């Protein structure tokens, strides 16, 4: 019996990773009813990380937090033993902004700190922060405040939310926040390597996606620089060094705050593959199907499908890819995938925003894979 592992990332705008995996599985089972098919929905630290974890060995738990605009929000975290996964996008992401109205200067990461606090209070000894897709550019100040950091303005009262609040910062003491996470393994899962400040920093590169104008990007970068100076003056001697570290600019500076708390940066793709047990499933598979919404130059830098393909290659397992669109020529994909199918080659319609059409086309791709590769391979092996 041929064993197939279906392990896609989300198809952004249309299908979650689990929905994509189920559609592919449906087509594979139609085309190769004798095959054993396992599903492993993937995530790399961005939106969908909790859902992917809970499709595997983790279980969801609801937690009450402060949303990005200060309104109460109920978010889900993923729990496995004493490990808690907090998805920043689910707490302060663009997708949870009330009415979708962006707030580039005032959006806060406080809710992420509250979720971390709840996890520690519940006995967690490992906390994974999945960094990506946030609406905030506050350098993680909100997270630090939720854990007890003292960030005050000229009048001695706590600063307000977001980068706008940091613009009025006068004193910064994060000793209590650091003490709150003493003995906790804090993992910062991201594949972003931007520093905190400057032309490649979090405000300049990601601020416009969060609604910041050119002038507001300058304001945010200046406010973050002020944050770094006052942190150093307040006793965080490594504040300037960490601001330059790769990943400090992840998730509006949540990467920076996590580093200040002793967190370690890990590749989101590779960390989640390990966390979700990909290696064990790969070792038991003859054939892998992976994919994502767009297979492009960024994919080759280590995004999930390529990271998975590298692991599979070490085990001698054949990998095929399905993507919403593929902008790479075959000679660029051949090193990783035996075949690549793109949904855009199967329709003239915009499937990126049509979940039903995407699911239908993925099932069709699954049947094609079964016909061309699984059933043919099985027939050749039986000769």
Task: Describe the model.
By secondary structure, the chain is α/β, with parallel strands linked by helices. It folds into 2 domains: 3-35 and 277-381, Rossmann fold (3-Layer(aba) Sandwich), CATH 3.40.50.10350; 49-269, Glycerate kinase, domain 2 (Alpha-Beta Complex). It has 17 helices and 13 strands.
How is the largest sheet built, in terms of strand order?
3-4-5-6-9-10
- CATH architecture grouping of the largest domain: Alpha-Beta Complex
Helix content: 25-40%
Number of helices: 17
Q: Distance N terminus to C terminus? A: 15 Å
Total DSSP E strands: 13
Structural category is alpha/beta
Share in β-strands: 15-25%
Coarse shape:
elongated
Global mean pLDDT: 94
How does the major sheet shape up? 6 strands, mixed
Order of helices and strands: EHEHEEEHHEHEHEHEHHHHEHHEHHEHEH
C-alpha Rg, in Å?
Answer: 22 Å
Low-confidence stretches: none
The CATH class name of the largest domain reads Alpha Beta
């Amino acid at each position: 019996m041929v064993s197939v592992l279906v392990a896609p990332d989300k198809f952004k705008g249309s299908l979650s990773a689990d929905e994509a995996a189920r559609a592919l599985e449906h087509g594979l089972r139609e085309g190769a009813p004798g095959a054993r098919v396992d599903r492993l929905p993937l995530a790399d630290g961005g939106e969908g990380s909790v859902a992917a974890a809970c499709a595997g060995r983790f279980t969801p738990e609801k937690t009450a937090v402060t949303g990005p605009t200060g309104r109460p929000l109920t978010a889900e975290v993923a729990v496995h033993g004493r490990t808690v996964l907090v998805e920043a996008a689910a707490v302060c992401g663009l997708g949870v902004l009330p009415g979708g109205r962006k707030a580039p200067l005032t959006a806060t990461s406080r809710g992420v700190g509250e979720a971390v606090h709840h996890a520690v209070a519940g006995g967690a000894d490992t906390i994974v922060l999945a960094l990506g897709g946030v609406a905030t550019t506050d350098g993680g100040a909100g997270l630090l405040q939720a854990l007890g950091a003292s960030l005050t303005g000229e009048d001695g009262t706590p600063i307000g939310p977001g980068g706008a609040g940091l613009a009025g910062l006068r004193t910064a003491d994060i000793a209590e926040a650091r003490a709150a996470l003493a003995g906790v393994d804090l993992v910062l899962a991201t594949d972003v390597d931007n520093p905190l400040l400057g032309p490649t920093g979090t405000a300049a590169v990601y601020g416009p996606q969060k609604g910041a104008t050119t002038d507001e990007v300058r304001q945010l970068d200046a406010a973050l620089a002020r944050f770094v100076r006052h942190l150093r003056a307040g006793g965080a001697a490594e504040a300037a060094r960490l601001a330059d570290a790769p990943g400090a600019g992840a998730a509006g500076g949540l990467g920076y705050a996590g580093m200040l708390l002793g967190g370690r940066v890990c590749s989101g793709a590779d960390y989640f593959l390990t966390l979700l047990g990909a290696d064990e499933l790969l070792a038991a598979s003859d054939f892998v199907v992976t994919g994502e919404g767009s297979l492009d130059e960024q994919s080759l830098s280590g995004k999930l499908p390529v990271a998975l393909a590298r692991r599979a290659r070490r085990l001698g397992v054949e990998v095929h890819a399905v993507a919403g669109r593929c902008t790479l020529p075959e000679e660029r994909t051949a090193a990783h995938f035996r075949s690549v199918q793109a949904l855009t080659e199967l329709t003239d319609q915009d499937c990126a925003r049509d979940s039903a059409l995407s699911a239908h086309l993925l099932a069709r791709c699954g049947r094609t894979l079964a016909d061309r590769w699984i059933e043919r391979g099985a027939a050749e092996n039986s000769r």
